[in-house]
Write a structure and sequence with these properties.
276 residues, 3-stranded antiparallel beta sheet, 9% strand
């Protein structure tokens, strides 16, 4: 992925490269498993990854940042001279590694962070602070993948490598959400129904299966959520291509306002639709 290989790569070596005043980090996990379960029960054929609808249909960057700012302002009221920065995969910060160090899980064979109770249907968010806190430290969570390789075996494009990394050029999620220049889909993409993101490796993970058995389906059916569900889960594919194709750039932005699909853009979505 280009944005991981440019000048920001050097900044990932230390949080001080991002913010020289950084002294500590609070790391959070935000689960969308309840929405994922609702989607699985209501729409057997998945077209979009769970994270796209998991925060009331709003781009998770907006939702999580709003929550983290609220928490940060409460900290600021209780401790003098506190300053903070919010990270929701917007800075060149290795948030997955921070989550591991914070005792929030281990890096699974799929390269996803897996929490022993909440699985991997989660988004990581962090608060960088300019002061140290005398807080108890969690120990690292033991790697619990053991001899399970369901995620590796289930990937239709064989994008999961043996060293717990992803071959981005073969990853469906990367192709459908990030790569505007990669026009040819990876081999095996045609065997899935995903047009934005991909949950295949997470859906077969035993820890996610346990989460889905334990929790209740949950949605916050806002106007935005219902509009997206109706578009992506109920619309015929040919009709969907025509509907998106007829939108002007401004119409697309208005329809997809503050969603993951607005961030990716109309051209990326049409590219995906035309390869399914």
């Amino acid at each position: 992925m280009q944005y991981l290989a440019d000048e920001r790569m050097d900044k990932r070596r230390s949080l001080k490269e991002i913010w020289n005043e950084c002294e500590s980090v609070i790391v959070f996990l935000f689960s969308y498993a309840g929405t994922k379960k609702w989607l699985l029960e209501n729409y057997k054929k998945q077209r979009v990854a769970g994270f796209t609808l998991g925060f009331s249909g709003v781009d998770y960057h907006y939702k999580i940042k709003e929550i983290l700012v609220t928490i940060s302002e409460k900290i600021k009221k209780q401790k003098e001279n506190i300053e903070y920065k919010i990270c929701v995969d917007t800075y060149p910060v290795l948030e997955r590694d921070l989550a591991v160090r914070a005792g929030l899980g281990w890096v699974g064979k799929s390269s996803m962070l897996i929490h022993p109770t909440h699985g991997s249907y989660t988004i990581i968010g962090s608060i960088l602070l300019n002061q140290k806190f005398d807080l108890p430290q969690r120990g690292n969570v033991e790697d619990q993948c053991h001899d399970c390789s369901k995620c590796v075996e289930s990937c239709p494009t064989q994008a999961i490598c043996n060293n717990r990394t992803i071959d981005a050029g073969n990853c469906i999620s990367n192709f459908t959400t990030q790569e505007k220049r990669q026009l040819t889909p990876p081999n095996g993409y045609e065997d899935t129904s995903y047009i934005f993101g991909c949950d295949v490796c997470m859906d077969v993970c035993p820890y996610n299966e346990n989460v889905l058995k334990r929790i209740l389906p949950e949605t916050t059916e806002t106007e935005q959520f219902n509009k997206l569900v109706s578009l992506f889960q109920e619309t015929d594919m040919d009709e969907l291509i025509q509907k998106i194709g007829k939108m002007s750039g401004k119409e697309y932005q208005r329809f997809m306002k503050q969603t993951s699909f607005e961030r990716a853009g109309k051209k990326v979505l049409l590219k995906n639709l035309n390869h399914t």
